[in-house]
TrEMBL record:
Superkingdom of source: Bacteria
Name of this chain's protein: Pyridoxamine 5'-phosphate oxidase
Gene3D superfamilies listed in its UniProt record: Electron Transport, Fmn-binding Protein, Chain A (2.30.110.10)
InterPro entries in the record: Split_barrel_FMN-bd (IPR012349)
Length: 141
């Protein structure tokens, strides 16, 4: 079966549904990709909280960042994959939404938003198998 290309808007809607916390693969300025917990913001930007560790902030500040998120079905097959690229900057307290959206992946990280980076995503692109998952409708409000 052929894959269906996803638009930037479709990618943002998939990334924010059903919850905004996701595990993703993050590569900073061409370095080795590493798994990270991420929080997706309304317009598609990404917060990568690091808790007490400020090492990521020093490495990533003002550098290009590549992101990849894959959603798997119950059998471990990809339902969709989204890739994005953007520019990182140190996260501030004003970047963190209040209240922080409920997320099972963020619940395991105490004091997660003490340090981290915000990635201003320039563009997402993605794909899903033909006949695969439906794209969620835009959120109201």
């Amino acid at each position: 079966m052929d894959d269906v290309e996803l638009t930037h808007r479709e990618c943002v809607r998939l990334l924010r549904s059903p919850e905004r916390g996701r595990r993703g693969i993050v590569a900073i300025d061409g370095r080795t990709p590493v798994p990270r917990v991420c929080l997706l913001l309304d317009a598609g930007d990404v917060l990568i909280p690091t808790g007490p560790d400020s090492g990521l902030v020093r490495v990533a500040a003002m550098r290009p960042v590549s992101l990849e998120f894959t959603d798997l079905d119950k059998d471990g097959r990809p339902r969709w994959t989204v890739r994005g690229i953007g520019l990182a900057r140190p996260m501030t307290g004003l970047d963190v939404p209040r209240p922080v959206p409920h997320s099972t992946v963020l619940a395991a990280t105490p004091d997660a938003f003490r340090n981290g980076v915000r990635v201003a995503v320039a563009r997402y692109r993605g794909n899903r198998p033909a006949g695969g998952v439906a794209i969620p409708a835009p959120r109201e409000g």
